[in-house]
Amino acid sequence: MNKKISVIMSAYNASRTLNNSIESILNQTYKNFEFLMVDDNSEDDTFKIMQKYKSKDKRIKVFKNDENIGLTKSLNFLIENSDAEIIARQDADDTSLEYRFEKQINYLNKYPAVTSRAFSIQSGKKIPGMSFYLPTFLTIKYKNPYIHGTLMINKKFLLSLGKYDENYKFAQDYKLFLEIRKKGFKIKSLKDTLYLLNTIDNISTNKKIEQKKYFDLARKG
Question: Most CB atoms within 10 A, among 49, 100, 118, 154?
């Protein structure tokens, strides 16, 4: 399969990790993609870094929000401005391994959405053991077994779900995954470890109370 992918990434005050994250996408073995990035009104050099890469690679599109609108609305904005058949997520503080797209995309012939395992990264060091694979429906009702940054999804399918629910400032990924499963579709979770996940100084660790509020709301919905 050589379908075009739209990679979407929203970043806020991400200058410390952004270079590695962007380069991990540009270094993918699968080359047929566009890379859409939005700076969510950062106070650091996030936008300058994005512009630097845009000047070097014509596949990159860069946007800047006039105010901080949050991840959910920023992702929906990027989806609306994408022009490929497939959407792939990337977080600004994480890294995709070079074979990620190449290994994931073929599964979209059978599944509407694909995720993968990841290694945990803490203080720049890789910690093996961050593993999520083939969760049961019962499992997803009580926790999120999927890594949002590894998501690759058919765009038409995502649009049919209404994109990300903008009522969810946090846990928008969990709400989306629940909707996919509730409608009877399976999310393919690869055994391959294709992502390096920052598990320090991220939303899940810094916004635990807010995250849990929206998580519980999605679970009860």
Answer: 100
Place of tokens 């990264």: 121
- Tell me the pTM: 0.93
For 132, the domain range is 5-220
Backbone torsions φ then ψ of 32, nearest 5 degrees: -85, 80
DSSP 78: H
CA separation for the pair 135, 129 (Å, rounded): 16
Q: Nearest CA to 213 among 155, 162, 174?
A: 174
For the segment 140-161, what is each residue's pLDDT rounded down to a tens digit? Answer: 888 888 999 999 999 999 999 9
The residue type at 61: K
Report the CATH number that the domain containing residue 214 is assigned in CATH: 3.90.550.10
Residue showing tokens 């999605």: 218
